[in-house]
Model the fold of this input.
Amino acid sequence: MRKTSNDELDRLDQNSFCEANKIPVVVILDNIRSQSNIGSFFRTCDAFRIEELVLCGITATPPHREIQKTALGATETVAWRYSPDTVEVIDELRGKGYLIIGVEQAEPHQDLLVHEFDLSRPTALIFGNEVDGISEEVMNCVDFAIEIPQSGTKHSLNVAVSGGILLWETYKQYRMKNKNWR
Ligand code: SAH
Done:
C-alpha cells in the first residue's frame, strides 16, 4: 500500500471552490472560545463544502494567527460572516426556510445514531460554547436538538470533533441521496 500524493488528490482550487455547488448546510458557532476550534470548523466546512459558517457572539473572526494554525487556509475558501447576535441569525435563516437544529445534549433530542436528515430543506446546525454549551436563549429557538451518542466516561465531546461528526454525517446522507453531486 502507498499513500496518495497531494497531486493525486486533485483538490479544487480556490476559485473553483467558490463557484462549486455546496451542500445545503449552514454552520452557526454560538460563542466559541477557542480559536483552534474555530479554525478546525473552517477546515471541516471546506472539506464537506458547506454553504456558510456564521461566527456569533464572542467567536473570534479571521484573520487570526491561532485560527489559521488549524484552518490551514480554509478561511479563504469557506464563505463566512460575523454576527453579534445568534438569535438574529436564526430568525433570518428561519425566514428563508431553513430548519434550525441545535447540536447539543438536551432533552428531548434526536439521536444521531438513527437520525435521517431532510436535506431537501436547507439546514442550519448550531454548536455551543466549550463550557456552557449552546445558550438557553438560543436553545429556545431551535426546531429540535441532535445528540451524538457517547459510551465512555466523559460527559461531552470537543466541539470541533462534534462538528466533524455532524458534518460528515450530513455530507454522507446528502451524497447518498444526490448521487450526481460532485
Ligand atoms: N454541554 C456541555 C459542554 C459543552 S461541549 C456542558 O454544558 O457541560 C461544547 C459543544 O460541543 C456543545 O455545545 C455541543 O454543540 C457540542 N457537543 C459536545 N458533545 C456533544 C454530544 N455528545 N452531542 C451533541 N453535541 C455535543
Notes: Helices lie at 6-9, 14-19, 35-47, 65-71, 86-95, 136-139, 159-177.
